[in-house]
Amino acid sequence: MPATNPIFRPLLWPTVATAIALAILVGLGLWQLERLQWKLNLIATINHRMVEEPMDVPAQSEWATLDLKQLEYHRLKLEGHFLNDSELYYFAQDDEGTAGIDVVTPFVLANGAGTILVDRGFVPRDYIDIAARASGQIEGPTSLIAVARAPQARGIFSAPDDVKGNLWFTRDPVAMASGLGLANVAPFYAEADATPNVGGLPIGGRTQVNIRNVHFEYALTWFSLALVLFAIYLAYHWSNGRIGRPKE
Hints:
Layout: H1 12-51, E1 55-56, H2 68-71, E2 75-82, E3 88-93, E4 99-109, E5 115-124, E6 142-149, E7 167-168, H3 173-180, E8 185-192, H4 215-239
Helix pairs in contact: 1-4
């Protein structure tokens, strides 16, 4: 057979279009693999922060320029006292789906170093009234360990906060402090650790590292689409007699 009759005789424009599409699909797959490695590193960093020794609260003079993402999930040593008469209620559910609230209480740092909103933990709705959990109120100077958290972003489907009714659907320290009329409040909040409170409420230790990581599945999808496209490309050329030795 003459050399001018190769086994594969690709058509120009289908080949150009397929090459461009394959480059895009493979590129997206590789990008997802890079994102996968970034996400794994992020999760490892957060898990490491959660077991590190607690750090001191950043000075109030640094709050305006803090990188909250760098601070988030670090454990903090808090010393001061709670403003129990200024509780805020963040709508929440426990692990079993029981409706209730997280009690968010302003915590005045010792020596007038500012105020941090502390999510003390979950309370079922039947115990929202302070009188029903009075033994769990911490009075006077105290110290605790809490996990630093960046403000929550308000989602598209987040309900509006009920400032007058004191029911919040997004933990944003700035908005919450404004609702209380408090000044010198940290731009981050903190979640109390699992140390039990007298009477059992609030239930602390609510910090969860729920970082969605489906980048491998996305990468597999893009690579699979690339493989399917290439198979279609070959099938198209086969059906048009462009693969295999041409018939005499």
